TrEMBL record:
Coiled coil location: none
Signal peptide: none
Annotated protein name in UniProt: ABC transporter permease
Recorded superkingdom: Bacteria
Entry keywords, A to Z: Membrane, Transmembrane, Transmembrane helix
Keyword Nucleus: no
Entry's transmembrane regions: 54-72, 93-116, 128-153, 160-179, 205-226
Pfam families: ABC2_membrane_2
């Protein structure tokens, strides 16, 4: 971790425009949860559906995409990353710092709102709120590592990330069992399923497999991002 890089990245990510993007989706999730509870229609099936389809399947990947690509992608696009690369800072430290900032943002704007929404909808019933919170956190680390790597590897990271989240996971995942199982969403859902007794929470992937795949995505994402930064020839950089 590098405190200076982290502070600059937080300042850039929490600017007015990006802050509005980060706040919009969690606000909608919390507003929906409060509305359903106020209307007294938030039974367990409805509550799990909201937490899974809105929290885990929509809010999480989009927030991770905004945070993961935003912490480093714009700096690469406009060339400002070169000012960092010319400093005597190891490339792995740059990547880990950017990744840590992105994970903190995902925790603040996706994980915590999921916990609050879960508590509003289900209270302590079957530990559903806690289960989804842990699942979203596990999936958030994997998503964020993936999107940070994409931001370093490609200038079209946002487009590629949207195609993955919306086409592969959402569209193909709804009709093709193979695509559904090969997704961060289902691996995170497996973690959620393991932490609650609610029968409406189900996953298509066994927990040991899901944990291994989540860890693999996180590690591979870091390795690819560090490797790509090391290929950028900048005088004075490691």
């Amino acid at each position: 971790m590098n405190a200076t890089i982290a502070a600059i990245t937080f300042r850039a990510m929490l600017g007015r425009r990006r802050a509005l993007l980060l706040l919009a989706l969690p606000f909608l999730l919390l507003a929906l949860a409060v509305g359903l509870r106020a209307a007294d229609v938030a039974d367990l099936d409805v509550s799990v559906g909201v937490l899974q389809r809105f929290g885990l399947a929509t809010l999480l990947p989009l927030l991770a995409l905004i945070a993961g690509t935003g912490v480093i992608g714009p700096e690469i696009d406009d060339g400002q990353i070169m000012y960092v690369l010319t400093k005597p800072i190891p490339r792995r430290v740059i990547v880990f710092t950017k990744l840590a900032v992105a994970i903190v943002l995902v925790t603040a704007f996706a994980v915590l709102p999921t916990l609050l929404a879960g508590l509003v909808l289900t209270g302590a019933t079957a530990q559903v709120a806690v289960a989804f919170t842990v699942g979203v956190l596990a999936g958030g680390v994997a998503y964020t590592s993936l999107f940070v790597a994409l931001a370093v590897l490609s200038r079209n990271a946002v487009t590629i990330g949207l195609l993955y989240a919306l086409v592969w996971e959402a569209l193909l995942g709804s009709v093709a069992p193979g695509a559904r199982s090969a997704s961060v969403q289902q691996w995170a859902m497996s973690v959620t399923d393991a932490l609650t007794d609610a029968s409406v929470v189900t996953s298509t992937v066994r927990l040991p497999v899901a944990l291994g795949l989540l860890a693999a995505v996180a590690v591979v994402g870091c390795v690819l991002a560090v490797g790509r930064l090391r290929t950028l020839p900048v005088a004075g950089a490691e």
